[in-house]
Amino acid sequence: MDVHAIVCIKQVPDTAEVRIDPKTNTLIREGVPTIVNPYDIHAVEEALRLRDRFGGKVTVISMGPPQATEAIRKCIALGADEGILLTDRAFAGADTLATSYALAQAIQHLAEREPYDIVFCGKQAIDGDTGQVGPGIARRLGIPQLTYVLQIDSFDPAAREVVVQRKLERGRQIVRAKLPALLTVLKEINELRYSAFPDMLRARSYEPRIWTVADLDVDRSQLGLKGSPTRVRKTTVPTPRQAGEIIAPATVAPEQAAQRLLEQFEKTGVLKEIVELTGGNAAHA
Amino acid sequence: MATQTLPAGTQGAPAQTAAQDKAPAASRREPGKTRFDVIVVGAGPAGVSAAITAAKAGLSVLILERGDYPGSKNVMGGVLYRQPTDVILPGFWREAPLERHLVEQGYWLMSERGATKFSYRGEDWDAEPYNAFTVLRARFDRWYAQQAEKAGAILVPETTVDEVLVRDGQAVGVRVGRDQGEIYANVVILADGVNSLLAKSLGLHQEWEPHTIALAVKEIIALPREKIESRFQIEGDQGVAYELLGSISKGMVGIGFLYTNKDTISIGMGCMLSDFARTGIKPYELLDQLKQHPAIKPVLAGGETREYMAHLIPEGGYNSLPKLYMGGLLVVGDAAQFVNALTREGSNMAMISGHLAAMTAIRAHQRGDFSAASMAYYRDLLENSFILQDLRRFRKIMPFVESRHELITVYPELLAELLQDFYTVDSVPKTQLFRRMMRKIRARRRWTSVLGDLWKGLRALS
Ligand SMILES: Cc1cc2nc3c(=O)[nH]c(=O)nc-3n(C[C@H](O)[C@H](O)[C@H](O)COP(=O)(O)OP(=O)(O)OC[C@H]3O[C@@H](n4cnc5c(N)ncnc54)[C@H](O)[C@@H]3O)c2cc1C
Question: Does the residue B10 lie in any domain?
Answer without folding.
Answer: no
